[in-house]
Amino acid sequence: MADFVSDTDTLIRYREDEPVDHAAVTVDSFLDQSNASAVRVEPGDDARELIPHLDRLALVEVNFPAFGDGRGYSSARLLREAGYKGELRAVGDVLVDQVAYMRRCGFDAFEPDAALNEEDLETALSRWPEVYQPAADSRTPIWAKRHA
């Protein structure tokens, strides 16, 4: 995992490459264009439509219009499990309490509506040193460590 990098007041990245600054288009617009390299997935969109195009995407933004809307977690995990390696950015109503779970689903960048405190963020990410189930991140579940 790359170290915490804050590129602006609200953009937080856990990647070592340069941030993507392309304007993200909607899924429908992306599917109609041949030159877009950034897309924004809304809660009602089917992220599986992007799977045939993952190799040309540099950025996928997943919008969280309200912190209680968890559909973006599923979109992230679907894309990571399908092999997406580019930047996967959670945008919108992202709270510090959600970031650790979002990282497990494959998000590696965050652009919340309100800036997150760096110390609170690192505390949230380090709170649970072990995990119990496999996910889109690279953490090994504790049961696999015991039976290795």
UniProtKB/TrEMBL annotation:
UniProt-listed InterPro entries: UCP030820
Official protein name in the record: DUF934 domain-containing protein
The organism of origin for this protein: Qipengyuania nanhaisediminis
Taxonomic lineage from the root: Bacteria, Pseudomonadati, Pseudomonadota, Alphaproteobacteria, Sphingomonadales
